[in-house]
Write a structure and sequence with these properties.
The complex is a heterodimer of chains A (about 325) and B (about 325). Chain A has about 325 residues and is an alpha/beta fold. Chain A is about 45% helix and about 10% strand. Chain A starts with 14 loop residues before the first helix and ends in a 20-residue tail after the last helix. The chains are: A alpha/beta (about 325), B alpha/beta (about 325). At the A-B interface, strand 2, helix 5 and helix 6 of A face helix 3, helix 5 and helix 6 of B.
Chain lengths: ~325, ~325
């Protein structure tokens, strides 16, 4: 598939900002590499869906959001949680299943939540988060709050009825939702062209009169720019926007995937376009980054990860006596 | 109590009054669903509310059950108090993903961070010759799900008063309104208001048999109880009112007195709420029983259209009377 981008090849204009984006992507990459290792060591169980290769999307989109905006993400959401400001420690402890985790170990890798930072999951039903995002935006509209709800989902969700219903409702009621489609070309193991009669995804959103853009999701600078324009449109019009980010997952779908459905050659080809590698190369060419600075960055991240693992190891297991808590609220009238 | 000023109205009027009161009392409350506005609600329960409260708070939705229910969840998370109306329980299956996978799980998955103060109302049950896609009683299914509460108002008082209590609840509450009851007329106190939820109610007292029921079958049970009384068989009639959490104390206390239990449930027998109630009686009151627990449920067929066939499929007064007679006299 060709990468036809409406936004790409953005120039590097700000050293500090570029380094900030690199740092954020690298944090996600190294954190997830450690997570995979800990999965093999059986410290993390259940499903573990890695975002490796797709970091530019979450990092770029986060640049367009304020602390007051909301995010609804999928089961591949470690990166979104981190750019939302959650600590590695509370995410790692969650994946360990410890009570110190952001969801007390009740959710695991697929269900990261943060009330203060307005991260509404970690939704593991494909398409299931879209209606919720529409509702969050409706609440903002009714309460006259000028906020954006950012809803991230994979291209697989486009096949779900809830995608179409949500596009329609958000457009019909003009609700401020930034729909971010992370098109990594495969819905688990099924290629886009094998599941969709029309693979030009913005056309589907456009059919509901939702404005759209497509961006090279391997270029964080381009994603940040496209997301800024998209979120500006949402804030100005109060209506939705559909942003397609063309990206690729370098790792298997989850830890149980022999990858029969795609060739090694294809994966290698995409790895050449690694968002972290390409940004760091551009920064080096520009003279804004050298090896020692990169090493220092890596060292800082390694320390942060080590501390997160330590926190997860030290964190307690929730008492089994508490098993039936959080089925219903423990106090109060709303 | 006898001094209360009463007035005549229908179950539908009572539902509408409950909606109106909620919209008046709390700015965060809004109603959305198919045809709730201009049409006035498919059962006319929201008639004239659009004119009174405007299109921001009385929202006609597209035929997108899953998404407008999910939007209700999102709006609840975002600080509103939505009332989502789904036309009938059969259509609610299109929204089951949102109800089961989101509304019922958010609080638990998030380790207590996010509660969902959402109310979903829908019509349920048969008796109107609407055949196999508009007539089922699936509230017992919903009662299987931890994380939600399931109410079924059978009386005018509950139709009027359960909604406000459901809106005060911090968690998702589903209210099932038996479609056949909307035109039911009765009397209600002029100052009727919110009622307690989560508790069953003893509507008639007797020493010989416990009739345990809810929804439209409650009225059939009361009718049967009156006939049985003429024959000298005195029955307790319990209105469960809430199917989840199930108020087991109420029926266990009744069985301890009468030693016989007959459950009348419009759901299908297999895997039904009546099966759950029966199991709890066996588990907790087995040695109190003088006869096996019995059940009258709907026949295990998709609901037929023809009147005589639908009547044959649904629990009826005559079968309640006959079963009760046999249980008491052998």
């Amino acid at each position: 598939m060709t990468i036809a981008s409406s936004v790409s090849g953005q120039p590097l204009v700000d050293q500090e900002h570029s380094l900030h984006l690199l740092h954020r992507m690298l944090r996600i990459r190294r954190f997830e590499e450690k997570s995979a290792e800990l999965y093999s060591a059986m410290k993390i169980r259940g499903f573990l869906h890695l975002y490796i290769g797709e970091e530019a999307v979450a990092v770029g989109v986060a640049e367009a959001l304020t602390a007051d905006d909301a995010v609804v993400a999928t089961y591949r959401e470690h990166g979104h949680a981190m750019v939302r400001g959650m600590s590695m420690a509370e995410i790692m402890a969650e994946m360990y299943g410890k009570v110190g985790g952001c969801s007390r170990g009740r959710g695991g890798s697929m269900h990261l939540f943060d009330a203060e930072r307005r991260l509404y999951g970690g939704n593991a039903i494909v398409g299931g988060g879209l209606p919720v995002a529409v509702g969050l935006a409706l609440a903002d509209r009714l309460q006259k709050k000028n906020r954006v709800t950012c809803c991230c989902f994979g291209e697989g969700a486009v096949a779900e009825g809830e995608f179409h219903e949500s596009m329609n409702l958000a457009a019909l009621w003009q609700l401020p939702v930034l729909f971010v489609c992370e098109n990594n070309l495969y819905a688990m193991g099924t290629a886009l062209q094998l599941s969709e009669s029309v693979i030009d995804l913005p056309r589907k959103a456009a059919a509901y009169a939702v404005p759209t853009a497509t961006v090279d999701g391997m270029d964080v600078i381009a994603v940040a720019e496209a997301a800024r324009k998209a979120s500006d449109t949402v804030r100005e019009t109060g209506g939705p926007f559909f942003l397609e980010c063309r990206t690729y997952r370098f790792r298997p779908h989850s830890m149980f995937d022999p990858e029969f459905y795609r060739s090694k050659q294809e994966v290698e080809g995409w790895k050449q376009r690694c968002p972290i590698l390409s940004l760091s190369n551009r920064l080096k060419e520009r003279g804004w980054l050298d090896e020692s600075a990169l090493e220092q960055l890596e060292a800082e991240i390694a320390t942060e990860i080590a501390e997160a693992v330590d926190f997860a190891e030290q964190s307690a297991w929730e008492s089994v006596e508490d098993l039936t808590r959080f089925v219903y609220s423990e106090s109060g009238v709303n | 109590m006898g001094q209360q000023e009463m007035r005549k109205l229908t179950y539908r009027d009572a539902v509408r009054e409950g909606l109106r009161e909620a919209l008046q009392k709390d700015e965060r409350v809004f109603l959305m669903g198919e045809d709730v506005g201009r049409y006035g609600g498919c059962f006319a329960a929201s008639k004239d509310l659009l004119e009174e409260f405007g299109p921001e708070r009385i929202r006609d939705t597209p035929l997108s059950e899953s998404t407008f229910t999910g939007a209700g969840i999102g709006a609840a998370l975002g600080g509103m108090r939505p009332i989502v109306e789904i036309m009938t329980v059969n259509f609610s299956l299109l929204a089951l993903d949102q109800i089961m996978n989101n509304a019922a799980t958010y609080l638990h998955m998030s380790g207590g961070l996010f509660n969902v103060p959402l109310v979903i109302r829908m019509a349920t049950g048969g008796g109107k010759q609407l055949a196999a896609q508009h007539s089922h009683s699936l509230e017992g299914w919903y009662a299987h799900i931890p994380g939600i509460k399931v109410l079924c108002p059978a009386t005018l008082e509950d139709a009027r008063g359960m909604l406000w209590s459901a809106l005060l609840d911090p968690d998702p509450v589903l209210i099932f309104e038996p479609a056949v009851l909307y035109p039911m007329e009765g009397e209600l106190a002029v100052d009727a208001g919110a009622v307690e939820i989560g508790k069953a109610k003893l509507l008639r007292e007797g020493k010989d048999l416990s009739l345990i029921s809810y929804g439209s079958c409650l009225h059939k049970s009361l009718e049967a109880a009156a006939i049985l009384a003429e024959e000298g068989i005195e029955t307790d009639v319990i209105d469960l009112r809430t199917l989840r959490p199930l108020d087991e104390k109420s029926f266990l206390a009744s069985v301890a007195k009468t030693h016989r239990a007959l459950i009348v449930d419009e759901g299908w027998r297999s895997g039904s709420i009546s099966a759950e109630i029966s199991a709890r009686i066996m588990e907790q009151a087995f040695y109190q029983l003088d006869a096996p627990v019995e059940r009258i449920c709907s026949a295990e067929v998709p609901m037929p259209y023809a009147k005589h066939m639908e009547e044959a499929a649904l629990p009826q007064v005559v079968s309640i009377v006959e079963t009760a007679r046999r249980m008491v006299h052998g």
